[in-house]
Request: fold
Amino acid sequence: MTATADVVVIGGGVVGMTAALTLQRRGARVTVLAPDDPADTVSTVAAAVWYPSHAEQDPRVLRWARETRAELGRQAAAGVPGVVERPTRMLLRRPYAGPPWWAPACPDLVAELAPPPYTGQLRFTAPTVEMTPYLAWLRQRLAAGGGRILRRRVRRLADAFDTAPTLVNATGLAAGRLAADPAVHPVRGHVVLVANPGLTVSVRDEDDPAGITYVHPRRRDVVLGGTYQPGVRHTGPDPDTAAAIRRRCVALVPELAAAPVLGERIGLRPARHGGPRVEVDPAGPPGGRLVHAYGHGGAGVTLSWGCAAEVAELALGPVGRRLATPTEGWIHHTM
Reply:
């Protein structure tokens, strides 16, 4: 088949779609190959709150997080569907040892005292993203710019080079097989959804001895979490875990006690030992370029736009063929 695009992105989750849009904004003709409907991607299961959860301290990760924080802030201000800035309280159980490594990405972060059993708390503002309308918006923006999204399951990365000479591998867990990377592994996540009784503040207690606990309000519901289970692959219902999550969250935010349960979501975060792999593969095919972008774990939304900028540089070069319009120009056409 003759190439019909400059870059093909494999993967229709948040990492793949933000990479595709960034490439398009830099002038590339982009095709996305996605085997599933957006509603079936792991991105839709995510609580999708900006926070570098289980991400290791690394200057590159910090840069991605900071750039994404800024971009999501602009999108929230522009009314992009699903993106809202929310005040956040992060409760601490250990002695405060100074700002966390990701603090430079949060210009309004402050440390305060908190009552026992906590040693303090961090307050900051963080974007939250409702993934179903947001993924739909990303796809609409790509289509409006001339990009294509094709339902196609890729069995081998080499097969996708018939579509474009440059390939971005944003396949999440499937990258373990497609890129022969044994460092890729699943991390099972379980959340409970309840009706929102009027909450507007996100609350976290990451060191709760009973399990990681977080409460993230959205427009009509609240995401209660959660679990972080490396190596666990099953996604079947678990009533005991769901009940335990709800008990921890009600103890943290008592206003949730009477909130009706709306459902639960279980997904597998695409994690990688050693952190995300974002690089050009030196073993790519002659005359082609293979860029990997996978292994973000539970921080896909948090790192998405910053990572996408680096992916675009790896695929197109430091400048690329940039569009004449301002970088932010597409935001205001929310559709």
Observations:
- The two ends are 34 Å apart (CA to CA).
- The CA atoms of residues 86 and 189 lie 22 Å apart.
- The domain at 7-332 is CATH 3.40.50.720 (Rossmann fold).
- DSSP finds six helices and 15 strands in the chain.
